[in-house]
Amino acid sequence: MKALDGEIRGGRHVMPVRVYYEDTDFSGIVYHANYLRFMERGRSNYLRLLGADQVSLFVEAEAEAPGFAFVVRSMQIEFLKPARMDDVLEVTTTYEEIKGASITLHQRVARGDELLVEAHVRVAFVCDGRARPIPKALRTAMKAEQDQLDASRP
Q1: Catalytic option among 5, 25, 113, 147
Q2: Cystine design at 104: which of 32, 50, 96, 108 (Cβ 3.0–4.6 Å)?
């Protein structure tokens, strides 16, 4: 179901997440590590939707680098405000940069207009346990989304 994956709007991937009791700690706020889970879902769904929008994208990437995967290389994160049970959050993922074997993404978790968490995440493209250049098909798809985002900015 596409709705479960969120959607790409104006070059940004946007995905809603509801906070459940299991996401909170003893004080009733979202446990910090759960934001990492929310953002992982956002990154995964962003890549899934890029593949859905460009049918041959993942087939081409698989042909170029069989058994490929993305792994988190580094993350800079700021926890600004807490979320609580039953809050509906929005996880936004935007492509920032592609360099060789890595992609840097900017992610935000917000409740309405209120920014709660912000992160810059660098993921590496690996195949057979080694970093590999990101396939051209994926680079092209992400660049097209970035161009759309840039065009939508005033």
Answers
A1: 25
A2: 96
Within a 13 Å sphere around the CA of 107, how many CA atoms are in the beta-carbon half? 31
* Residue type at position 89: L
Q: Which one, of 16, 154, 18, 42, lies nearest residue 94 by Cα?
A: 42
Q: How far apart are CA 26 and CA 127, in angstroms?
A: 40
- 25 is known as an active-site residue: yes
Query: E-assigned strands of 49-101?
Result: 69-79, 88-99
Which range is least confidently modeled, 12-21, 54-63, 115-124, 140-149? 54-63
pTM, 2 dp: 0.81
Average pLDDT, integer, range 56-85: 81
Distance of CA 150 to the CA centre of its chain: 18
CA distance 18 to 89: 6
Contact 105, 41 (CB under 8 A): no
Residue type, 14: V
Q: What is the pLDDT of residues 108-126, one digit of tens each?
A: 999 999 999 999 999 988 8
